[in-house]
Amino acid sequence: MTLNNHEYWMAKAIQLAQQGLYTTHPNPRVGCVLVKDDQLIGQGFHAKAGEGHAEVNALADAKQAVDGATAYVTLEPCSHQGKTPPCADALIKAGVARVVYGMQDPNPEVSGKGLAKLKKAGIEIIGPVLEAECEALNPGFIKRMREGLPFVRVKLAMSLDGRTAMESGESQWITGPEARLDVQRLRAQSDAIVTGIGSVLADNPSMTVRIDNNDQDADPKSVRQPLRVIMDTALSILPEAKILYPAHQVCVFSVAEEVEPEHQDVLCKKGVTVRFAPRGEDGRLDLLDAMEQLADLGINEVLLEAGAELAGGFLQAGLVDEIVVYMAPKLLGSSARPLFTLPLETMSEAVELTLTSVSQVGQDVRLVYLPSYL
Ligand code: AOF
Ligand code: ZN
Question: Keyword set for this entry (predicted)?
Answer without folding.
Answer: Hydrolase, Metal-binding, Multifunctional enzyme, NADP, Oxidoreductase, Riboflavin biosynthesis, Zinc
